[in-house]
Known about the structure:
Distance between the termini: 43 Å
Structural class: alpha+beta
Largest sheet: 4 strands, antiparallel
Radius of gyration: 17 Å
Helix content: 25-40%
Strand order of the largest sheet: 2-3-1-4
Shape: elongated
Order of helices and strands: EHEEHE
Amino acid sequence: MASATPPDHTPVNPRIPPEDSLIQYPCPFPIKVMGVHEDAFVEAIVAIATEHDPSFQAHTLERRPSSSGKYLGLTVIVTATSRTQLDNLYRALTGHPLVKYVL
Length: 103
């Protein structure tokens, strides 16, 4: 029996030195989040955004319901302070059960 090749442990998002980043921190950073059109979805996104950006203001959320009304698109604008912060924010958003897509 042939031995299995160990999995590649290369990070999906390798470290980029600040001088090579296309983003200059801190900066406003919009994130689009699509989920089920219900109050719990909005509340969860506000809580996640606030956890990762304490200066986030819930009233700045842009809301766009789908044509059927079943889904809601949110544009969340956070103050990005680092790649690590954004990576952690994306992980928290994509890991939430009410979230369908994050762009």
